[in-house]
Every structure is written in C-alpha cells, then in structure tokens.
Design a protein that fits this description.
two-stranded antiparallel ribbon, 7% strand, 2 domains, mainly alpha, 52% helix
Amino acid sequence: MLKEFKEFAMRGNVLDMAVGVIIGAAFGKIVTSLVTDIIMPPFGMILGRVDFSDLGWILPGQARFNTLADAKKAGAAVIGYGNFLNTVIDFLIVAFAVFLLVRQVNQLMKPKAAPSQAPSTKECPYCASTISIRATRCPQCTSELKTSA
C-alpha cells in the first residue's frame, strides 16, 4: 500500500495540484492582507472612520458590551457582518484573478490559424472542371485559357 501511495503521489498531476494548493493558500493570505490592510481602511475613513472588522450586531437578550470584540471575548452571540464583507471582497478579488488566469491560459491554448496558401487549382470558365492554376489549356474541354499575367 505504501508503494501504491508513493506512485500516486509522484504522478505529475498530483504534484502540480499540490503546488497549486500551496500557491493558492499564499495568494489567499496576500489578498486578505490587501483587503483588510489596504482597501478597507480608505473605505472606512470615507464612511466616517469605520473599521469594518468591528461591524456587527450583538443579538438581544445578552449583557451590554462596548465593542464587538468584547462581546466575542465574552462568548456572546454576535453577527459579524463586517468580517463577512471583508471575506466577500477577498473572494471577489480571488475570483477575478482566477478568471484572468484562466482567460490567459485559454488564449494561449487556442490553435493558431494556419497561414492561408495561394490556391493551386482554378475552375475552367468553359466546362467548370477543376484544373491546375498553371494550366493554359483545359484538359477536359481543350479550351484555351486566358493567362493572368
């Protein structure tokens, strides 16, 4: 069983997938930092110095708390919609990056159109048979053809 697992793990696709997962996790951390440290602070400032990670509702019927963080520490039931907004923005950025990557790969994988070659045959204007482009007389009807020079 160990030998089979080793053969499975050493296949090219499995290694490629592992590298993709590791890079994806690192990319996710970068995007999370981008959203929480760079994108959301200006939005919060525009909206009146709001920290989106502190946005949420403390469900009624519990003790009063000054901040959402205090309520979470005390184990109170809270709906943290600010963190949800940050996560949605994270997802949208990652989804857009994946879209751009897949779009680029698809463009690279498209078969390139072969350059068009000059025609090697033409149609006889008298009998409509197909003849060589260089022919000066039709082999079917023996008509003399005009040369295009």
